[in-house]
Design a protein that fits this description.
alpha/beta; Rossmann fold; GMP Synthetase, Chain A, domain 3; 3 domains; 9-stranded mixed beta sheet; 6-stranded antiparallel beta sheet; 21% strand; disordered C terminus
Length: 621
């Protein structure tokens, strides 16, 4: 770790990215070194397991690349993939990148309008989908330059196989030799809160450097033959896609769980040693365990055991570690409750990698106290995923790690996190003005996130610059601190903290329909709908206690004074949550303005807005 004169922190890379180092080379090099090593395990439709060695996978990539050439895919063509996380996604991605094409991911949850924008903006020539239904949706909005849409369930693989006839591996190798590391490998469309998504252009060098940086600091995970990672997050998201290639570049085994409905059976079958998650998944696991414990003695036992896990984790981070009695209590908690939760996550699980959003401190201590090494990081699509990652043995709860080797991180005067380096995008696709807005000097990328760096270079996220609330009294409030704490309550499906230009801070809650039945039974209440439950005194009392606990982490001026339970659900499908499970705050505030007004007895007047200015700060005369 080195602190530079400009106040930034960096770690020197032990590797170099060459002029022709490209993403498929990482698998190719492993296939040469460890040809018989298992790289991928697949579950068939009947449940049997099929293993693919690195050399077998490499041959399939090359064969698929031959087929794509036969179909007429040219170097520089943008080809979109609309499919769940799967082996087919991986195979197509590597094959496309092997012949100089550009992979354009499309989320399964994207609307017709979003798909049309992506196809038009990236000038996509061909689309591969998982299902006929998805292909029909794409056909309905495809522009003229999108000449072909093929689905896996209608024989896309057979089409590629037939097209491979007459194309040789030498043809693929010629294409690969012509690719530069500075060539665009992918265009990822960010799930923005307003307007059309922007295309983040990432090069082969971005991916290779980020993957090698991750291997430098997490070698004991990535370069171990014992590593087994089950991927279930959408690979349309940059983090999951990067991790997919990182695992293949090391010595681990990659597995896929295409449907979240089958995740637990897939975990039991695959037995991962590593899980890549977003915080919402960890919240769901915790709440499900709490709900299953129910009320009475079992409920009290779970609450006590969870407390022991948290306090043990806190003590373990201190110089002298936990004392004898704390170790004894933790041992009892482990025998009674904690080991049962671990068994659900698989007998081999050693690491949980959490990204996409900050993880609540209490929740992080709970999992760390279960004996699982929690690795947190921070990054965006524009930084090829992680720009900072925790090192094993240097992973304090609350932090998001040190700079990834080859990158620099510093904090601006207003608290914004600025980054530059090998992982940072060259720019938004065909959007020079928007690129200049986030990289005004052409070097430092302005993330829009607020944070701090300690003397050891450890980065901590404190909020989102654009989401900062400024109350009528001029108090700056970061809503994420309160929201992260409240999100762990089993009844809360979604929470949004509000209060911009208002006299105090408030909150809107939606109830979790899946967790509600167990919670009602646990508390001896009759079953009812979320709408009816919102009127129950016991529900409001439980939420009031959760608000009181969350308020302890902030000052009085930042505390939630009032809240409302609204009859709604925020999901990816209805557009209120991004595919990476982040709340689209502006959309919620706009669509539920009447509910927010009800917290304060009415809307903000035009006169108040004029006095406060556009962002809630007093205007100067």
């Amino acid at each position: 770790m080195k602190r530079m004169r400009d106040g930034s922190y960096t770690i020197k890379p032990t590797y170099k990215v060459g002029e022709h180092d490209i993403v498929p080379d990482m698998l190719a090099k492993r296939a040469l070194l460890h040809p018989g090593q298992v790289a991928v395990e697949q579950r068939s439709s009947v449940g049997s397991i099929r293993s693919l060695t690195t050399s077998e996978l490499q041959r399939q990539v090359e064969y698929t690349a031959c087929g794509l050439i036969g179909l007429g895919v040219q170097a520089g063509d943008a080809v979109a993939i609309l499919a769940p996380t799967s082996y087919e996604w991986l195979l197509l991605d590597l094959a496309l990148l092997s012949i100089g094409a550009i992979t354009v991911p499309i989320y399964e949850s994207d609307s017709a309008a979003q798909i049309q924008h992506i196809l038009t903006d990236a000038h996509v020539t061909r689309v591969f989908t998982a299902t006929t239904q998805q292909a029909e949706l794409v056909h309905s909005v495809a522009p003229e330059h999108t000449v072909s849409v093929d689905s896996f369930d209608r024989g896309a693989q057979r089409l590629i196989a037939r097209a491979a006839a007459g194309i040789t591996i030498e043809n693929v190798q010629q294409r690969r030799a012509a690719i530069s590391s500075s060539d665009i490998a992918t265009i990822i469309y960010t799930s923005g809160t307003t307007g059309n998504p922007k295309g983040v252009a990432l090069t082969h060098a971005n991916f290779v450097a980020t993957a090698l940086g991750a291997r430098q600091i997490l070698s004991e995970v990535i370069d171990s033959p014992e590593t087994r990672l089950l991927l279930f997050l959408p690979v349309a998201h940059v983090l999951a896609r990067l991790v997919m290639h990182v695992i293949l570049s090391g010595q681990g085994v990659l597995g896929f769980s295409p449907s979240i409905k089958n995740l637990l059976p897939d975990i039991q079958a695959f037995k991962p040693s590593v899980l890549l998650v977003v915080p919402r998944v960890l919240e769901k696991v915790y709440n499900a365990a709490s709900s299953k414990a129910g009320g009475g003695f079992k409920g009290r036992m779970f609450a006590w055991s969870a407390k022991q896990a948290r306090t043990f984790s806190v003590a373990s981070a201190k110089t002298f570690g936990p004392g004898l009695f704390k170790k004894m209590r933790h041992g009892i908690a482990d025998a009674l409750v904690l080991k049962k939760i671990r068994s659900v996550l698989g007998p081999n699980l050693r690491y949980i990698v959490s990204g996409g959003a900050p993880l609540a401190t209490d929740l992080a201590h709970f999992y760390a106290g279960m004996g699982i090494t929690l690795i947190q990081g921070y990054g965006l699509s524009e930084t090829t995923g992680p720009i900072s990652v925790q090192h094993i043995g240097k992973n304090p709860v609350g932090g998001v790690g040190l700079p990834l080797p080859g990158n620099f991180i510093k904090i601006a005067k207003d608290g914004e996190i600025l980054v530059r380096g090998q992982s940072v995008m060259p720019g938004y696709y065909h959007l020079p003005e928007q690129t200049a807005e986030v990289m005004p000097d052409g070097k430092w990328f302005h993330t829009g996130d607020l944070g701090s760096i300690d003397r050891k270079g450890q980065l901590t996220i404190t909020g989102r610059k654009k989401e900062l609330i400024v109350t009528a009294g001029g108090k700056n409030v970061s809503p994420e601190v309160l929201e992260d704490s409240l999100a762990t309550h089993p009844l809360i499906a979604n929470v949004i903290v509000v209060g911009d230009q208002r006299p105090y801070v408030g909150a809107l809650f939606t109830l979790d329909a899946d967790m509600l039945p167990d919670w009602l039974a646990k508390h001896g209440l009759p079953q009812c709908s979320p709408t009816e439950a919102a009127e129950l005194p016991a529900v409001r009392e439980s939420l009031e206690k959760a608000v009181e606990r969350a308020n302890k982490a902030v000052s009085r001026a930042e505390s939630i004074r009032k809240f409302r339970i609204i009859d709604a659900t925020f999901t990816v499908e209805n557009g209120y949550v991004t595919p990476s499970m982040k709340l689209r705050r502006r959309k919620v505030i706009a669509d539920y303005a009447h509910e927010i007004d009800a917290l304060y007895g009415g809307p903000v007047s035009a006169e108040q807005r004029t006095k406060r200015g556009l962002f809630g700060r007093a205007k100067k005369n």
